[in-house]
């Protein structure tokens, strides 16, 4: 619906404050509407400037409804040049103007909530200037409504009743079901129900019926009705042959009975998994006196439909009669017994255990963050002998609920049991990040750290000498700071902190050290590109001025504030000195546009706050190894996200076929679950299976294209990772046009990657600690005791 322009000044948008610069500002709630608005605007503008000011933003050229539900309307509009934001309001007929909210200048949509179903509203959008003044409004009319439902199942068991099911409608309180026969011209109300199913037991065999259903909702005593569904036709055939009963014997068999036809030679039994699908003959009854049949080739949880007909013989001629109306059955098997959900602190995972269920072919595992709703499948376990599963795709500190169902297979059919009871599992919080110390007195350090998800408290540990055990010096801490006093001057102390939650104490963070009476830097390493400037920050309790120096000013230079500028490729030491005490950082100057890292399960408990202060501007996280999730991914993602680290992910591939590569991509998307990435999804192609003599180059290229297609169709960017020798030897490097590359080669930074094939080099992994010509350490990635370790270091090229 297109918008129209109202010559209205939305003065309710003007938050005019309290006596600023001598001008009285009227609270928004006191600003009148309608014809009085202009006079208020003139008064306030004149009070502020001494003259009439009419330079307010124009109205949006277009405003439209984007989505309508039973209690909300989502609007979008065109941008207004010079606008600093937008105000959204709405008004009912003969009602007051209600301000729904405001947005910033870059947000051009808004969801108005809490509306009344069936009520027509006029929605108004006006632009705001830098002082919060509103201009003219653009408006659109819209009415929240209930959606039209549709029938999902219609059946006529034994031709004695009609069973109808329909789709649930958001906001519906009840449903009205209408019916008419073939002889009736109009529908009559049959029932009003709060359920989404109804059994009509007033039908007559041989009659045809048509049904319609609609959702209804009570709004302040007024019944609001949705549009009617499409009709559902039901015919109760008067064919001579019909089933008398169709009843489950157990979860894997059903017994069918019928009346004898004395003219028949026998009977044919047909079965289908769809009411209107293809029916296949499953049994021939050659004795007309046999009036029952038990089908034992079904599975629980799946719907089966049956038909019957007579057949007659005349000489060699066999004639089948008319098939009966279909009858439906769906058996149930008891759910497995879920015994326990246990917390694995070291693996950051939850382990499920259940009792083996008889005759199952496997188990399906469901998970939710709610105890009684929202369960979604996370894994199928093929093989009935397995009675456990470790869920690693969970977030530390989180609470999850699990159910399982047995999988039953009978021939080509697969069915599910009823669900087990739900059990709760809670993870311990992850190790806190951002552990820092600041000296606040001669014998005192202020220790602080970041919040951990799911933490109810913290424990702080300290060691006063290298190699000594860490002792708990404080527990039950509810704040993320602790004052440690009575310390010795000149002594180096190391600290670790852990978070405690309902599931117990989590892992301790890696150690961070501080020397009392010394000088400390915010990072021990710094990565920057040639021409870039990044800061080092010194802290000390000493009273002298900080003096900065660099070991080689041809590679990097540092100013008196600690700002380091990259001059040429190489590694130097930058030192901060105060009154004879000093601290140094290793500075690496690289080519490219940005510096980054890539990490996997081999780098656990990363302090992303320190990593970011080390000059790292992006990170690739391993999200999966073939089709298995990296169990450290969720912790890494949450902690990196908390400090604003731009991220991409990579899948370490072991795919041998195009189908396996597509499945690897789907696993990545399933783990991401729609999360936004600032960097691409990388396909890591380097495993031994890709270098096997049986692997063809053509297949590898098809796998690359297949993985790329899946992730790009989902809205993500793609990059291919491998090392130069692989690209040159196992792929056809002339056939990588249009593909972004992430190239690994460990050598002198001045030499570049050395790759000369097709493709666009976006990233270079230039070291992982295997090459001594450049530094591969990043503060925040350490041993448990705090010593720096090597990590894969990368650069990004701008073009």
Automatic annotation (TrEMBL):
Pfam families (UniProt xref): Big_2, fn3, Glyco_hydro_25
SMART domains documented for this protein: BID_2 (SM00635), FN3 (SM00060)
Ranges where the Fibronectin type-III domain occurs: 59-149, 239-334, 335-430, 431-519
GO annotation, biological process: carbohydrate catabolic process; cell wall macromolecule catabolic process; peptidoglycan catabolic process
Molecular function as annotated in GO: lysozyme activity
Signal peptide: none
InterPro entries in the record: Big_2, FN3_dom, FN3_sf, GH, Glyco_hydro_25, Ig-like_fold, Invasin/intimin_cell_adhesion
The family this protein is said to belong to: Belongs to the glycosyl hydrolase 25 family.
Protein's UniProt name: Fibronectin type-III domain-containing protein
Taxonomic lineage from the root: Bacteria, Bacillati, Bacillota, Clostridia, Eubacteriales
């Amino acid at each position: 619906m297109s918008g129209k322009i109202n010559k209205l000044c939305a003065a309710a948008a003007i938050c005019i404050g309290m006596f600023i610069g001598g001008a009285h500002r009227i609270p928004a709630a006191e600003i009148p509407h309608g014809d009085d608005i202009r006079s208020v605007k003139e008064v306030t503008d004149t009070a502020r400037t001494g003259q009439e000011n009419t330079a307010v933003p124009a109205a949006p050229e277009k405003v439209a409804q984007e989505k309508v539900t039973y209690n909300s309307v989502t609007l979008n509009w065109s941008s207004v040049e010079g606008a600093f934001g937008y105000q959204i309001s709405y008004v009912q007929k003969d009602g007051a103007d209600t301000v729904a909210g405001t947005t910033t200048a870059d947000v051009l949509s808004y969801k108005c909530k809490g509306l009344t179903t069936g009520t027509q509203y006029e929605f108004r959008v006006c632009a705001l200037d830098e002082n919060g003044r509103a201009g003219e409004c653009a408006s659109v009319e819209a009415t929240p409504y209930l959606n039209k439902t549709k029938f999902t199942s219609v059946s006529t068991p034994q031709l004695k009743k009609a069973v109808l099911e329909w789709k649930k409608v958001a906001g519906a309180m009840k449903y009205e079901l209408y019916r008419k026969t073939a002889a009736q011209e109009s529908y009559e109300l049959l029932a009003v129900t709060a359920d989404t199913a109804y059994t009509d037991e007033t039908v007559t065999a041989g009659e045809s019926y048509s049904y319609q259903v609609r959702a209804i909702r009570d709004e302040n005593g007024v019944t609001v009705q949705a549009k009617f569904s499409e009709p559902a036709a039901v015919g109760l055939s008067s064919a001579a042959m019909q089933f008398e009963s169709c009843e489950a014997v157990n979860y894997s068999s059903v017994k069918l009975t019928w009346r004898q036809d004395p003219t028949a030679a026998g009977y044919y039994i047909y079965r289908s998994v769809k009411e209107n699908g293809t029916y296949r003959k499953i049994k021939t009854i050659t004795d007309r006196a046999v009036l029952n049949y038990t089908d034992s080739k079904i599975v629980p949880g799946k719907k089966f439909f049956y038909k019957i007909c007579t057949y007659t013989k005349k000489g060699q001629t066999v004639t089948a009669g008319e098939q009966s109306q279909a009858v439906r059955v769906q058996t149930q098997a008891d759910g497995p017994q879920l015994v326990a959900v246990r917390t694995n602190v070291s693996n950051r995972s939850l382990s499920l255990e259940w009792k083996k269920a008889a005759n199952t072919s496997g188990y399906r595992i469901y998970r939710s963050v709610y105890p009684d709703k929202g369960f979604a499948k996370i894994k199928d376990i093929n093989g009935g002998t397995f009675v456990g599963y470790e869920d690693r795709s969970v977030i530390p500190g989180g609470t999850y609920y699990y159910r399982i169902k047995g999988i039953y297979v009978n021939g080509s059919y697969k069915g599910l049991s009823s669900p087990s009871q739900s059990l709760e599992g809670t993870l311990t919080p992850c190790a806190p990040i951002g552990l820092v110390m600041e000296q606040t007195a001669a014998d005192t350090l202020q220790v602080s750290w970041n919040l951990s998800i799911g933490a109810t408290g913290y424990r702080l540990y300290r060691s006063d000498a290298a190699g000594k055990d860490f002792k708990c010096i404080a527990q039950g801490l509810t704040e993320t700071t602790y004052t440690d006093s009575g310390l010795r001057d000149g002594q180096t102390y190391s600290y670790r902190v852990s978070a405690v939650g309902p599931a117990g104490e989590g892992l301790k963070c890696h150690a961070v050290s501080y020397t009392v009476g010394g000088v400390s830097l915010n990072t021990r390493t710094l990565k920057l590109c040639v021409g870039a400037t990044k800061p080092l920050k010194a802290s000390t309790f000493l009273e002298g001025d900080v003096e900065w120096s660099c070991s080689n000013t041809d590679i990097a230079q540092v100013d008196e504030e600690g700002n380091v500028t990259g001059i040429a490729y190489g590694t130097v030491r930058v030192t901060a000195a105060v009154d004879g005490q000093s601290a140094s950082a290793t500075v690496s100057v690289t080519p490219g546009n940005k510096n980054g890292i890539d990490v996997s399960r081999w780098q656990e408990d990363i302090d992303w706050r320190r990593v970011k202060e080390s000059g790292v501007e992006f990170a690739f996280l391993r999200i999966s190894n073939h089709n298995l999730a990296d169990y450290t991914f969720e912790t890494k993602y949450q902690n990196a996200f908390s400090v604003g680290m731009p991220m991409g992910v990579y899948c370490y591939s072991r795919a041998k076929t195009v189908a396996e590569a597509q499945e690897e991509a789907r696993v990545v998307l399933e783990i991401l679950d729609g999360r936004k990435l600032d960097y691409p999804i990388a396909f890591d192609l380097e495993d031994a299976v890709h270098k096997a003599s049986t692997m063809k180059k053509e297949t590898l290229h098809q796998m690359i294209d297949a993985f790329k297609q899946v992730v790009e169709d989902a809205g993500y960017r793609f990059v291919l990772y491998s090392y130069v020798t692989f690209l040159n030897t196992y792929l056809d490097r002339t056939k990588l046009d249009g593909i972004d590359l992430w190239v690994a080669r460990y050598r002198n930074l001045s030499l570049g990657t050395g790759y000369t094939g097709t493709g666009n080099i976006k990233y270079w992994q230039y070291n992982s600690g295997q090459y001594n010509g450049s530094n591969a350490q990043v503060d925040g990635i350490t041993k448990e005791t705090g010593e720096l370790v090597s990590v894969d270091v990368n650069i990004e090229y701008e073009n």
